[in-house]
Design brief:
324 residues; alpha/beta; six-stranded mixed beta sheet; two-stranded parallel sheet; globular
């Protein structure tokens, strides 16, 4: 309970850390504040758990105002119960009328400041949520259906968005490159058009702090008429990643929304592996967003799945990219 590991494994961990000259130890799981402190004392190294690692990655990726607010909110919620201190700075500060009374400890002051900062960020995120709700309402009045790209992180959602709409959204081969939802209009040859939304990538056992902080972003999925589930066909844990995304969508009560499974990065597979995946996922669409292979079949599938309303009252501003 105190160290997660038994004495033997703890000794083995210390030896491995010495041999590898490691200054940081990461546990693939969530540790309690007491366990983090105990492990840091025993190993004399910085210890991170899985949630803190994901939050650190998010902090590096956040560039927009909304993204930074959401990451800061998640970090504060994670940090709040883990505030500890044992030095003279934690002595009670003078407080009360005329300097009498116990006052607050520094620890209590830090916790109060965190609570105040969380309340302020919540207010700002509520403002962003209202702005996005207004945008969604305007799209609904125009009769534009919405298709949202969902999937495990680094599955190629942003690359697919760029390929379909000829945009230049940031798309990199790394985890959580996209934090904020990006929307683009997509016009089909039959004069139909829809809004295509790119969202933050999922990960198995998504930390609850992230789910709460990114609620404003994930609301884009709730307004979607179609979910395009993009999966990395070349990843060795494809099945687990698809199951993780399905589980998160089920938790968000989005099972009723029509969904298309897309096996991206098909060009990286050998013929034998392609046959295996076709048998395992017969309804999935194999594509390569990078080489644009399979995009015609995807566009036809989207057109057949979306319930198109009359486009007579849709106001079209400027030339729109087409799907070829």
């Amino acid at each position: 309970p105190r160290h997660i590991l038994g004495k033997g494994k703890l000794t083995e961990l210390e030896i491995l850390a010495l041999q590898g000259q490691a200054s940081l130890i990461i546990f693939d799981g969530e540790l309690t504040p007491a366990q983090l402190n105990s492990l840091s004392e025993v190993t004399e190294r910085k210890v991170l758990d899985r949630t803190q690692l994901i939050l650190d990655i998010f902090a590096q990726r956040a560039t927009t105002r909304a993204g930074k607010l959401q990451v800061e909110m998640a970090q504060l919620k994670y940090t709040q119960p883990r505030l500890v201190g044992k030095n003279r700075a934690m002595d009670r500060l003078m407080g009360g009328i005329g300097g009498r009374g116990p006052g607050e400890t520094k620890l209590e002051t830090d916790r109060r400041r965190i609570r105040e900062r969380i309340a302020k960020i919540k207010k700002e995120l509520d403002g962003l949520r209202q702005q996005r709700a207004f945008t969604r309402a305007r799209r609904a009045r125009q009769g534009l259906p919405v298709a949202a790209l969902v999937g495990y992180t680094n599955a190629g959602k942003s690359t697919l968005l760029n390929a379909l709409t000829r945009s230049e959204v940031l798309a990199e081969d790394k985890l959580f490159a996209t934090l904020d939802p990006t929307t683009r209009r997509l016009r089909f040859p039959e004069e139909h058009e829809l809004v295509l939304a790119d969202t933050v990538g999922f990960i198995r056992n998504l930390p609850k702090e992230l789910t709460e902080a990114f609620q404003a972003t994930l609301e884009e999925l709730e307004a979607a008429d179609l979910l395009l589930h993009v999966a990395d066909a070349s990843h060795p844990e494809l099945d687990r990643q698809i199951a993780a995304v399905d589980g998160i969508l089920a938790d968000m009560e989005l099972n009723e929304v029509p969904r298309i499974l897309i096996l991206n990065k098909w060009d990286r597979l050998e013929d034998e592996m392609r046959d295996i995946l076709r048998d395992r996922w017969p309804d999935a669409l194999p594509i390569s967003a990078e080489t644009r292979d399979g995009l015609n079949a995807l566009s036809r599938c989207i057109e057949n799945t979306i319930h198109w309303e009359t486009t007579a009252n849709i106001e079209i501003t400027g030339p729109m990219p087409k799907v070829y």
